[in-house]
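ingest -> validate -> predict -> emit
validate: passed (alphabet ok, no gaps, 80 aa)
predict: started
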Amino acid sequence: MRLYNIDNPEYFLNVIKKCKGNVELVSKQGDRLNLKSELTKYIALSQLFTDNTFINEMELVVSEPEDMKLLLDYMMEGNK
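emit:
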């Protein structure tokens, strides 16, 4: 699934934390990074603060169907 225009990474990561299964970010090179990993979250957030920008687009792979619904709900209600 693709997500667009994430301008509140902290809220987004709180949604990820609620997911029951794995949530992986697919990099442009095809690598999969587990967003439930504290190390991965630290690296992603530090990159965001360095670039001083928001996330335009990202591709995620989720392992549980209910997590897909949780992320779709997040996209529909917008970034808070």
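The chain has a mean pLDDT of 82.
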